[in-house]
Structures are given as structure tokens and as C-alpha cells.
Amino acid sequence: MSAEWVVPLYPEQFSSQERLLLRKPPFEATGFRFSTGVAAVRLKNDVGDLVMLPFQGQQIWSAHFYGRNLTMKSMFEEPNPTTEYLRTYGAFFIHCGITAMGVPSAQDTHPLHGELPNAPYRDAFLVLGKDDRGPYLGLGGRYRYTVAFNTDYVAEPTVRLYANSGVIRLHLTVTNLKRTPMELMYLAHINFRPVDNGRLVYSAPCTPEHVRVRRSIPSHIHPPPDYEAFLEELAHHPEKHNVLRPGLFFDPEVVFTVDYLADEEGWAHSLHIHPDGQADYVRHRPDQLDKGIRWICRTPDQDALGLVLPATAEPEGYTAEKAKGNIKTLPPGGTFHVDLEMGALRPEEARAIEGKIERILGRA
């Protein structure tokens, strides 16, 4: 990778008027503040744009490619300046972790999905560079989380946007700055907007053994009477969720754990293929994030498809995942690294990935 330009960002650069920060065709970066006061950077290429929150979790608040909005429908038109997860929920992508992740149980003290989702970043920057995919425009940052006698780590994420592509790359490196071991949990929360009759195609056998529905019900959701019967049906026939037919009972949500298979280069693949042939896409590395979580929520107020939320653990909170042996440990000075790709595919690109998935599963 060759970095050509690194441009530091500062909160005082941002105002209600959107202003140019950097331009090198086909890329452009502009900055503005939402009416709530949250600073945002818009990264553009020739087929779409991302809106990111450089100083609030480095979230990707929205993603638009090929003329469509990839981002979940939520109750929030704009992000709010808060660290409370459910008071500003609706982003396309959210980092979750690191000291804990998932829904806290009665035995847990951590916030929902940990401290990373809306972490206050002091350091943020734009970068223009070139890697094996070609030139890119990116946004990155550095967040240090220190609690005396307990935790000291630094998280360094970057997102890269490429020319003529609706698929972005995301990298994250977490370094344990302590002189003692550090426990770690992480989940990449990717929230697409589902479409009726979209097909879910992914590199995992769709059997009850490999696509397992969550039976526990988190305290923040309130299901209707028939909800448990629907979960029971999916437990025996998980293939029934592979087409997002209108009327399926994803209200308030359904969560699966999926055992992914990887291709010869170590990547697992997930598609949400729209009726018109376009697709949403995620690829991740099970050797980094060995739990594939799927989250579907289709209600009048929230419409979201977590096609796959690659993670180090299931989303049941620290205590439950500790009991399962799902907590990772970083040695003193050790690092944890994540590589992801996500975004939108043209029909011909989607067909190629679907063929790859068929070969991984031995069906082609």
C-alpha cells in the first residue's frame, strides 16, 4: 500500500454548510455537520457515496451506490451526539466491542454492544492511496480507551472507497497497550435495507446444525404471542428465511448464528440478491471473525438486514459468551486485526459471486 496524502481532520473544520475537504477525480471528500451537531464526512466516487462520522465511532452513517440507498430504515433521520447505543441507532456500519459486545444479561454491567459504537475519536484523517485494488479515498482514525487498573488499548479503523465500485474495504487493528493480557470481543454491525423477495445466498450449509436461530429474547424487545412458534419453525427449517417474502415474522427481530465456509483464499461470502439482479454483499475472513451472526428486523419503524455480522462471539453479552469460551485474549502488546469488504454489486458481479458460493458448497 502506498499512501499519497494523509489529511488530518479537526472538529472546528465542520459547520452546517457542506464544504470541500479534498478532491482528486473520481474522488471527493466534503465535510458538514448534521442539525444535531454531529460532524460528518461525505466520501464520493463515480458511482455513489458514504457518509461517515469521523469523531463518533467512525460509523458509516449511510451508503448510497448505483442510485439506491443501502442503509437500513430506522427511526433516526440524523445521528445524535450521544454514546447511548439505542438513542442514535440507524447507521449502515457500526464497530461493536471491545471490552464487551452483545446484549448484556442481568449479570453484566457493560453497555449494549460495548464502548466502540459511538466512541469519541480525537484523531481522524482522510487518506488518498493505492493498494492491490487500485487508487482509493479513505477515512481513518485512532481511538484510545483507558480505564485505570483495567484496560488500555488503541483501535485504529480505516475505510477505503475505490473508483467505479460499490464495494468498500474496512480494516481495523486493535493493540493491547497493557503489560498484562486483555480480553476482547468484537462484532461488525452491517445494516442493509432489505427488499421484498430478496434472496440470501451465502457460503454456509443451510441446515439446522449450521444455521442456528437464537431462542433467547433480549430485554429490549417485546415480541408478539406467535413469535416463539416462528422461532421454533426456523430452528427446524432455517431455509425458510432465505427468501425475504412479505409477511415473514421478523418482528421485532430474528437472530441466527451461521457456520461459514471460506474459499481457497480464506474469504466467506454473503449475498442479498434483489429481484432486479443487483445485490448487497459482504465478504469476511472466518480465521479472524469465526462467528457469523445474521440479524433481520422488519417492522413498521425499522427495516434492516444484518446479512452477516462477522464477530468473535455470539451476541449474548460478556457473561454468557465467557461461559461458552468465546472471549479472545490479546497478550501484552498484542494486536487483533479485521479485514472486511461490503457494499453493492451490479447484476453481473452478483452472478459471479453466486457462482463462487456454489463452488464453495460443492454444488457447481
Could you characterize the architecture of this molecule?
The strands form 4 sheets. This protein has a 9-stranded antiparallel β-sheet with strand order 1-9-10-11-12-22-18-17-14. A 6-stranded antiparallel β-sheet has the order 2-3-4-5-6-7, with no helix packed on it. It is globular, with a radius of gyration of 20 Å. It contains 3 helices and 22 strands. It has helices at residues 227-236, 318-324, 347-360, and strands at 2-9, 19-24, 27-33, 39-44, 48-52, 60-65, 68-69, 93-98, 123-131, 134-147, 151-162, 167-176, 182-190, 199-202, 211-213, 254-258, 268-273, 279-284, 291-298, 303-311, 328-330, 335-345. The protein is mainly beta and 364 residues long. The protein has one domain (2-360): Distorted Sandwich (Beta-galactosidase, Chain A, domain 5), CATH 2.70.98.10. The two termini are 35 Å apart. The model has no long low-confidence stretch (mean pLDDT 96).
